[in-house]
Design brief:
Structural class: alpha+beta
Number of strands: 6
Radius of gyration: 13 Å
Largest sheet: 6 strands, antiparallel
Strand content: 25-35%
Number of helices: 3
Oligomer: single chain
Shape: globular
């Protein structure tokens, strides 16, 4: 793991704790075989499987719907951060709050 991996893993973990407290259960980080920083990080939030996908400064979020992963932007009309903003502190917090709203809606 390099300094970029550690930086973004810690930012995801810190932001998740701000948004969900102890209600986010992370699985094991899976690093992709790439010359740059790429990883997938599964989690369970509100009892729903979620995937955090980091690749070269971009963070994608996916939610399990009917047994398959769907990108968050495909299942919500709420505004998400664009491009590299998805890894900024503000962008990540916004996107995690959107994810939280979607997950809570799925539980109802």
């Amino acid at each position: 793991m390099n300094q970029f991996d550690e930086k973004y893993i810690q930012r995801i973990k810190d932001t998740a704790e701000q948004v969900w407290g102890k209600n986010c259960d992370f699985g094991e980080t899976v690093f992709r075989d790439a010359p740059w920083c790429e990883f997938d990080w599964p989690a369970i939030i509100h009892g729903i499987n979620v995937q955090f996908m980091y690749e070269r400064g971009l963070l994608g979020l996916a939610v399990e719907v009917d047994g398959k992963q769907e990108y968050l932007e495909r299942i919500t009309q709420l505004e998400l951060s664009d491009g590299f903003d998805s890894c900024s502190e503000e962008g990540m917090k916004n996107d995690f709050q959107v994810l939280d709203a979607v997950l809570k809606g799925m539980r109802e």
